[in-house]
Amino acid sequence: MTTEDFRGDDAPKDDRRRDDDRVKDERGEAAPSLTLQSLSVDVLVVGVTYLDVVVADLDEFPGPGEEARAGGLTLCPGGIATRAVATARLGLDTVLSTSLGTDRAGALVRAALGQEAVRLDLADDLAGASTPVTVSVAHDGDRRMFTRDSLAPVRQPRMLLDDGMCRCIMVDLRPGQDEILPLLVDVWTAGAYVVADVGWDPSGIWDPAVLKPLSVCDLFTPNAVEAMAYTGADTPEDAARRLAEQVPLAVVTDGARGVHAASLEGTRPCEVFVPAVTAYGPRQRDATGAGDVFGAALVAGTLWGLPLADRLAFGALCAALSLSSLGGAPGAPGWTELQRWWSRALQQGDSPVLSRYEFLDSLLADQRCSA
């Protein structure tokens, strides 16, 4: 199938307030929380922020009782904050709604975010709470992650639903996070583009109830392992098809094997596969946060009105560029990195790559004009 029936029609429109049967019987009581007054933004990112401790450049992964030397180490914002940094670096006005502990980990995260164009209007400091920490060990083309969660809650911002308040909201779906649904109902009804992701379920239950909020989402971006676990599918392609029955656009990321997208919207079903792309030059060092960088770039392409295939290709490119740095947030590309890659692609003269990324030329020209 082709993308001809799905060329950006899912992007938020100027007249975005919706009235759809999907919002019926979904509300429930709203918990007391923050209010966004006079806050008009491109992207509101809501979820749990981690301090990522990224270890890379190992000769081998140590066995029990063994020690290995690492050539690379960095500390950086992780979790939902990776998406906030990635969208901000692409020029989108981004607000991060999250909670940070008042411990040293929280101070490190806040200091790092303070150097980015991410608005922290809704970032709470919770006295006495511990900031979640993930240790990510990059080895053999992927990463192993060790996480210490905390009890620090993320207060859900209640929107004053004025038109134009928020073009897009990005959230993580988690077990037991029922309070997210009323927020998503409100912003979806008001016309915001609602994007959901999901994380690893350490319990191994993979309860389908976690995906209930997809009824008021526009885009869902799980990775292949998560998508297959929640759907019972045997392949990422089949998982994307099954998820497309619950959400207008399902995009399943599969690392170096590319991404699979499926949609049942429009005049006929649509399926798109986009392979991974070379970064031209820098070697791959760390895949931590690459999926978050992909999702952020996909959202940016959606808000710019790009066709689906171009959005997916742009996301794959941004994810590939992030692999040369340690950590997803530090590696998220901006326009300088994208211009450098395009210049290298032109020098290489790889016709399939140049044809696939021809749209990038106009995006870069727009950025130069607005600079």
Automatic annotation (TrEMBL):
<keyword id="KW-0418">Kinase</keyword>
<feature type="domain" description="Carbohydrate kinase PfkB">
    <location>
        <begin position="43"/>
        <end position="330"/>
    </location>
</feature>
<dbReference type="GO" id="GO:0016301">
    <property type="term" value="F:kinase activity"/>
</dbReference>
<protein>
    <submittedName>
        <fullName>Carbohydrate kinase family protein</fullName>
    </submittedName>
</protein>
<dbReference type="InterPro" id="IPR029056">
    <property type="entry name" value="Ribokinase-like"/>
</dbReference>
<dbReference type="GO" id="GO:0005829">
    <property type="term" value="C:cytosol"/>
</dbReference>
<dbReference type="Pfam" id="PF00294">
    <property type="entry name" value="PfkB"/>
</dbReference>
<keyword id="KW-0808">Transferase</keyword>
<feature type="region of interest" description="Disordered">
    <location>
        <begin position="1"/>
        <end position="29"/>
    </location>
</feature>
<dbReference type="InterPro" id="IPR011611">
    <property type="entry name" value="PfkB_dom"/>
</dbReference>
